[in-house]
Amino acid sequence: MGRKKKKMSKPWCWYCNREFEDEKILIQHQKAKHFKCHICHKKLYTGPGLSIHCMQVHKETIDKVPNSLPLRSNIEIEIYGMEGIPATDLKEHERQRQGGNDSGSDDEPAPKKAKPEGLLGNAPGGPQHPGMMPPGMMPPPGMPPGMSMGPMMHMPPFMHPGMQMMPPHMMMQGQPGPAKPLFPSAVPTSSPGGAVVGADFKPISQGATISAPPTTNQPAGSSTPGSDKVPLIASTGASSKIIHPVEDISLEEIRARRLKYTKVTPQKPEEPIPTSSSAATNLAIAVSAAQQAAAHQAKQIDAMNHHAAMMQRFGQPVRVSGPPIGMIHGGPIMSPMRPHMIPGPPTLIGGHLVRPPPLSMPPGT
Amino acid sequence: MFNQSSFGNSIIGQNSTTPSAANPMKDFEVTQPPDDSISSLAFSPSTLQQNFLVAGSWDNSVRCWEIEQSGKSVPKSMQSCGAPILDVCWIDDGSKVFIASCDKTVKVWDLASNQTMQVAQHEAPVKTCHWIKSPNYTCLMTGSWDKTLKFWDTRSPNPIMSINLPERCYCADVDYPMAVVGTGNRHLIIYQLEGKPQEFKRVESPLKYQHRCVAIFKDKKKTPTGYALGSVEGRVAIQYVNPQNPKDNFTFKCHRSNGTPNGFQDIYAVNDIAFHPVHGTLATVGSDGSFSFWDKDARTKLKPSELMQQPVVRCAFNHNGQIFAYAVSYDWSKGHEFYNPSLKNYIFLRPCYDELKPRSST
User: Fold this and answer.
1) B233, A355: Cβ pair inside 8 Å?
2) What's residue B167's pLDDT?
3) Do A291 and B259 touch (CB under 8 A)?
4) What is the CA radius of gyration of chain A?
5) What domains can you pick out in chain B, each with its CATH number?
6) Which of A24, B10, B111, B275 is the most buried (most CB within 10 A)?
7) Does pLDDT of A178 surpass 70?
8) If we measure between CA atoms, which residue out of B213, B192, B215, B193 comes closest to residue B202?
């Protein structure tokens, strides 16, 4: 926590509580964000300056400093960088720096160009996790003092614009659960899991599993509380929408329910061993055609029966023995790819499981 | 590559070097792509000299191409199963491919003999399959919607081991000695595979929405140290198994529309995550139809892509990190009404080694 002390003295903007590395940058920020005339975009130097400019040049009154926090919008106060900040606010800010955990949202600087979308901020109904606070919420009760969110909230200066949407509060999460202190400051070097296992992932103590509390209280394999009603994807708020069916199950599960995909082709039902793919060309074409025309189900079954019949004629290929050489040409629906197929050289046919594949042969053998 | 017609909506006035609106990144197109959406992609392991790409599809088939240095893809073989394919993976010596399917089985495809054989059985469709090679055992790990994770030696019809999951398996990754499984209801479980597979830790999800994809990353010593988890809410969490500092774990947003003037935003699922085998940087692909390259250590985006006409469903790097493959097809994110079977599915190949180099540190 030594790092924090250093940051305590950082200049910050009275209007929006953002912290800066340097007072020069703070001043640039204030000119651009708070003292810019919305009509002619001229950058003024102070709130009163802006007010006077608008009055004189554009004949408009400005009663609030643009982009300011609700209680910090007073345009009368003359603030330039860190100069002119009311003493009480200075003290309050210091106090929060030092880790009053009532700071919560207040000193959470907004990421510079964060879009005003409400993904996290506007999802009051959404599930919350300790350590994943939307802006504006208090830290979880378990958070020890001295861990005010503020200091770790800064966008790293090297942050690329592409990452700008990373909300600062996301920087802390992943703690196993509320039963452990979120930040075991008593054990300075360890993270929650770290004491139990080496970084090399080796020693596994039973304690590691058992002591990770929150997710284990659900017996494995048991049906979840909501399993009889279909869980839905929580909405993200008015300003954004998750492009996903409303059911909170995977896209693949939804898709797999479709009739088109549930028609499991009866390849060789009661057969524990090989689903052989070898077949004659005309058969391949037949099956291929049948599969493409999913509507022609009868035809397909026909083809499959035919296929099965063929398979029986060929006998059951056994696991370690290869098929007759003449059968190497592709599977049942190989027709479109067939011209390109490289039949394995005879020496490789019927080899055992670990032989190299003919694929490693140069084309044209 | 040159006989592809785009579907009517390509702009006539485009100059001839732009192949079509379907390929905005002008990457190499894999020939004879699957007839239905692509569900899985996997490059052959480093044990093979050449690069082979395998893709499983909802058209019930698995295809294999050889990818030449020139970017040309040569169809090599194809295998059909009775039901849609959900995942594929290679065995470590590159001689076989495992095929996880909606028919509740996993089959092994012996590429030499072009035979398939069932090696795993579940009570529901099998969503993931991964080959585990450890010094003292090898096996296939399968995760299913029947809420189990099973381990198979591929010779016995019974699993060596079966582990119950709290929910249906949605995504998994294996990098010995670590495995991660993400399930429905946002469960996340880490397994350690040394000796025998066993649960290592259950982690409270860092994400608030459905888990969709997970990929393990390594530290500088090339040992697995954490994972990236993607959700349907356009967000990826970078998590260390044992973070030195709570700040090491973070999440970032991705695959979202740029807000319209009134700030409204569409948020898309992160469909797949892959780590570059050399640089340790990562790629994400999303339902929005784009891929992005990221540097998790510098926390920067290295490159965004243009938007494709359909979602990007899966991605993969080849073993030496020269080729980035990504599959463009419908992922059902807008329901079946938006499924247009006549739209072509694409797999593109992109030379990516330089684009994924981490930012030089400042």
Assistant:
1) no
2) 95
3) no
4) 33
5) 29-351 (2.130.10.10)
6) B111
7) no
8) B192
Residue in chain B nearest A342 by alpha carbon: B76
For residue A102 the two structure tokens come to 């009532």
Confidence of residue B190 (pLDDT cuts 50, 70, 90): very high
Partners of B181 in the beta sheet? B172, B189
For residue A156, give the chain B residue with the closest CA: B299
Query: Contact B245/A360, CB-based, under 8 Å?
Result: no
- The reply to whether A316 touches chain B by the CB within 8 Å rule is no
Looking at beta carbons, which residues of chain A come within 8 Å of B157? 272
- Give the C-alpha separation, B228 to B206, whole Å: 10
**Taking Cα atoms as reference points, which of B145, B164, B151 lies closest to residue B102?**
B145
Spatial CA neighbour of A277 closest among A267, A289, A285? A267
* Contact assessment for residue B270 and residue B331, using Cβ atoms and an 8 Å cutoff: no
pLDDT at position A266: 57
- Judging contacts by C-beta atoms under 8 Å, the chain B residues touching residue A357 are 48, 94-96, 110-112
A188 in B contact zone (CB under 8 Å): no
Q: Which residue has the tokens 């469903």?
A: B313
Spell B276-310 as b/e; 16+ CB within 10 A means b: bbebbbbbbbbbbbbbbbbbbebbbbbeebebbbb
SS3 A239: coil
- B157 contacts A272? CB cut-off 8 A: yes
Residues of B in contact with A353 (CB under 8 A): 95-96, 110
> Which residues of chain B are within 8 Å of residue A191 when distances are taken between CB atoms?
242-246
Measure in Å the smallest separation between the Cα of A84 and chain B Cα atoms.
Answer: 34
Give the minimum alpha-carbon distance from A123 to chain B in angstroms, rounded to a whole number. Answer: 11
For residue A7, the tally of other CB atoms under 10 A from its CB is 14
Q: What is the pLDDT of residues B96-141, one digit of tens each?
A: 999 999 999 999 999 999 999 999 999 999 999 999 999 999 999 9
Give A76-130 pLDDT, tens digit per residue.
888 888 888 888 888 888 887 775 444 333 333 434 443 333 323 333 333 444 4
Which pLDDT does position B326 carry in this prediction?
A: 97
pTM of the full predicted structure?
0.59
